[in-house]
C-alpha cells in the first residue's frame, strides 16, 4: 500500500441556496465526513428571541475525501448539493490546518456565547461607547444587528447617524 492510498483531504462543496444543512445531513447519511462551520445567533421569531445556527459560509460545506479511493459520483446528485467547487479541472482543497482552526473558533464562539450573554439594551436607551474608534461618545441604542453587533444612533456633525458596533464596545451609560 503506497502512502497516497487512503490519503484524505478536505474539499469544498457548493450547496443550493438555503440548503447547506440539508446537504450536510444527506451526505452524512451516505457515510461521508463533512464539516459545516456555523455560528449561533439570537434572532427574533414571532416576537420571541430564539437561538439559531447559521452557516458561517452560506452555500458552502467541507467534505473529507480520498481523491483516489472514495466514490465521488453520488456527491453532486445529493439533495442540497449544487456542485463540487473546482479551480479549472481540480477540486478545491482546504488544508487540515484551516479546518482545524475553524473548528477551534466554533468551539471558542460556543463557549463565549454561553459564558458572556449579549448585553440587554432597550431601544431608546442611552449607551456609552467605551472601546474602539468612537470611544468616549454616548449614543442611543437602536437595535441588534446580530448577536455580536449593535446599532447605535449618534449625533455626528449635527446629524443623527446609525452606526453598527461590536456589542462589547457598548455599555449602559451612567448619564441615562
Blueprint (SSEs and pairs):
Layout: E1 8-15, H1 20-29, E2 33-35, E3 38-45, E4 48-55, E5 60-66, E6 81-84, E7 86-87, E8 90-91, E9 93-94, H2 96-115, E10 126-129, E11 138-144, E12 149-156, E13 159-166, E14 170-172
Antiparallel strand pairs: 1-5, 1-6, 1-9, 2-5, 3-4, 7-8, 10-11, 10-14, 11-12, 12-13
What does it look like?
The chain folds into two domains: 8-115, NusG, N-terminal domain (Alpha-Beta Plaits); 126-172, Roll (SH3 type barrels). It has 176 residues and is α+β, with helices and mostly antiparallel strands. The protein has two helices and 14 strands; from the N terminus they run βαββββββββαβββββ. The chain is elongated and about 65 Å long. Strands 1, 2, 5, 6 and 9 form a five-stranded antiparallel β-sheet that branches. The N and C termini lie far apart (72 Å). A hairpin with an 8-residue loop joins β10 and β11. The mean pLDDT is 85. It has helices spanning 20-29, 96-115, and strands spanning 8-15, 33-35, 38-45, 48-55, 60-66, 81-84, 86-87, 90-91, 93-94, 126-129, 138-144, 149-156, 159-166, 170-172. Helix content is 17%, strand content 42%. This is Transcription/translation regulatory transformer protein RfaH. Residues 7-106 form the NusG-like N-terminal domain. It comes from Leucothrix arctica.
- What's the helical proportion of residues? 10-25%
CATH top level class name of the largest domain: Alpha Beta
Beta-strand level of the residues, as a percent range?
35-45%
Residue-averaged pLDDT: 85
CATH topology group of the largest domain: Alpha-Beta Plaits
N-to-C CA distance: 72 Å
Provide the gyration radius in Å. 22 Å
Tell me the major beta sheet: 5 strands, antiparallel
User: H/E order of the elements?
Assistant: EHEEEEEEEEHEEEEE
Low-confidence stretches are: none
Strand tally: 14
**Secondary-structure arrangement, i.e. CATH architecture of the largest domain:** 2-Layer Sandwich
Q: Which class do the helix and strand fractions yield? A: alpha+beta
**What's the name of the CATH homologous superfamily of the largest domain?**
NusG, N-terminal domain
**Domain count:** 2
What's the shape? elongated
Tally of contiguous helical segments: 2
Amino acid at each position: 500500500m503506497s502512502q497516497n492510498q487512503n490519503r484524505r483531504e478536505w474539499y469544498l462543496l457548493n450547496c443550493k441556496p438555503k440548503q447547506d444543512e440539508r446537504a450536510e445531513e444527506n451526505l452524512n447519511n451516505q457515510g461521508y465526513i463533512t464539516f459545516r462551520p456555523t455560528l449561533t445567533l439570537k434572532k427574533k421569531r414571532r416576537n420571541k428571541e430564539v437561538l439559531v445556527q447559521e452557516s458561517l459560509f452560506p452555500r458552502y460545506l467541507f467534505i473529507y475525501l480520498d481523491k483516489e479511493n472514495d466514490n465521488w459520483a453520488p456527491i453532486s446528485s445529493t439533495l442540497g448539493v449544487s456542485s463540487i467547487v473546482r479551480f479549472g479541472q481540480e477540486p478545491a482543497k482546504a488544508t487540515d490546518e484551516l479546518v482545524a482552526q475553524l473548528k477551534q473558533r466554533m468551539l471558542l464562539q460556543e463557549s463565549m456565547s454561553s459564558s458572556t450573554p449579549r448585553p440587554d439594551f432597550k431601544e431608546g436607551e442611552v449607551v456609552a461607547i467605551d472601546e474602539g474608534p468612537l470611544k468616549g461618545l454616548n449614543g442611543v441604542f437602536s437595535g441588534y444587528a446580530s448577536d455580536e453587533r449593535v446599532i447605535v444612533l449618534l449625533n455626528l456633525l449635527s446629524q443623527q447617524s446609525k452606526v453598527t458596533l461590536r456589542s462589547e464596545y457598548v455599555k449602559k451609560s451612567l448619564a441615562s
